[in-house]
Design brief:
binds flavin-adenine dinucleotide, FAD/NAD(P)-binding domain, 6-stranded mixed sheet, 2 domains, about 325 residues, Polyamine Oxidase, Chain A, domain 2, 7-stranded mixed sheet, alpha/beta
Length: about 325
């Protein structure tokens, strides 16, 4: 009989895993959000789009380059060559060249995931709340207590703390992994009021990164959309602060760093990513967590120390291992 697999999370790792195993199993992806994206999400309003999670990605492995090739041909993935600078309150700005190709999805960061999703069975707006053993299978329940089905395998691609809550794996299965928070500030500023550079790495500041999203390839350059990310240290120290105060403080910091007049900021929104960036993993990690006896597994960027390509590689390695053992 074809094994049934539930994959929790339809970010890059979940979609990669589903594509890699689709010929070997009957797969359902459960995604709590309204749309695809995960940490490669975009917030949209009319003509404006803010990529408030991942900003760009690199492609180092042959396998990831192979995944991207057809999407580059279709225009869903585009090389990004910004005029990038480094900012600090204590130093004059200096240019910061990139020495390897960087990519973005177009017209928004989640376009890559949308392009990967046709043919997959994805239940959106479905938060997996718990799983319980049912004979030699797993029964999944959502946050309304509704039954989501019975599966031979349950694989989580959710961020580490959410996976840890869901999957009853031994505590040491998660040793050595970690995740840190980040605030994303999304501003509306007319392009004429912004500096000439397109993106900035920021040092010695509550902010760590600034990008003018409307100047990215495939976006509408007419409607200014700025994304500024806090540093992980600052987000950790201010995680439970009043969110209006956080938004105001980060907006003021943005203006001070860039020289943009405060009254040029037409609107400011804030998103708190509690689990944004994975910490580095020591040694040579296998790239996934696997309990073959109970048919539970986890994958995602955090298994390999973070970043978009790590999410892909983690899922691909897990899929290869599962195929190798005949699931
Ligand atoms: C602010 C920020 C900036 C970043 N910048 C970069 C960058 O510039 N370059 C780079 O390479 N990487 C960057 N990253 C990291 C990159 O976004 C991630 O490495 C990558 O998107 C992780 O993909 P994933 O599939 O492993 O996890 P995710 O994208 O987090 O996908 C997990 C999915 O699981 C879903 N989920 C969770 N719990 C449940 C549940 N109980 N039921 C159902 N669904 C659930 C979530 O909604 C989510 O869609 C950034 C991330 C953030 C947040």
């Amino acid at each position: 009989m074809t094994p049934r697999i539930a994959i929790i999370g339809a970010g890059l790792a979940g979609l990669t895993l589903a594509r890699e195993l689709s010929e070997h199993a009957d797969i359902t992806l459960f995604e709590k959000a309204r749309g695809l994206g995960g940490r490669m999400s975009s917030r949209r309003r009319d003509q404006q789009r803010w990529d408030h999670g991942a900003q760009f990605f690199t492609a180092r492995s042959r396998a990831f380059k192979a995944l991207l090739t057809p999407f580059m041909e279709s225009g869903a993935v585009v090389a990004w060559q910004p005029n990038i600078t480094t900012l600090s309150p204590n130093q004059a700005p200096y240019k910061r060249p990139w020495f390897e190709p960087h990519y973005v999805a177009a017209p928004a960061m989640n376009s890559l995931l949308k392009a990967m999703s046709p043919g997959l069975n994805i239940a959106l707006q479905t938060r997996v709340q718990s799983l319980e053993p049912q004979g030699d299978r797993w029964r999944l329940l959502d946050d309304q207590g509704e039954w989501l089905g019975e599966f031979d395998w349950v694989i989580s691609s959710a961020p580490l703390p959410q996976t840890r809550e869901l999957l009853p794996l031994a505590a040491d299965a998660y040793a050595g992994f970690g995740m840190r928070p980040c605030y994303a500030l999304m501003l509306t500023v007319d392009d004429r009021d912004l500096p000439v550079w397109d993106a900035a790495k920021v040092n010695d500041s509550p902010l760590g990164w600034i990008a003018f999203n409307h100047r990215l390839p495939g976006r509408n350059p007419e409607v200014g959309a700025v994304v500024a990310h806090s540093s992980a240290d600052w987000a950790e120290a201010h995680l439970e602060d009043d969110q209006d105060a956080v938004r105001e403080q980060l907006t003021a910091e943005f203006c001070a760093l860039t020289g943009v007049a405060p009254n040029a900021v037409q609107e400011a929104q804030l998103h708190r990513w509690r689990y944004a960036l994975a910490t580095e993993v020591d040694g040579e990690p296998v790239g996934y967590v696997l309990d073959t006896a109970r048919k539970l597994a986890a994958c995602g960027d955090w298994c390999l120390g973070g970043r978009v390509e790590a999410a892909f590689t983690s899922a691909r390695r897990l899929a290869a291992r599962l195929r190798e053992r005949g699931l």
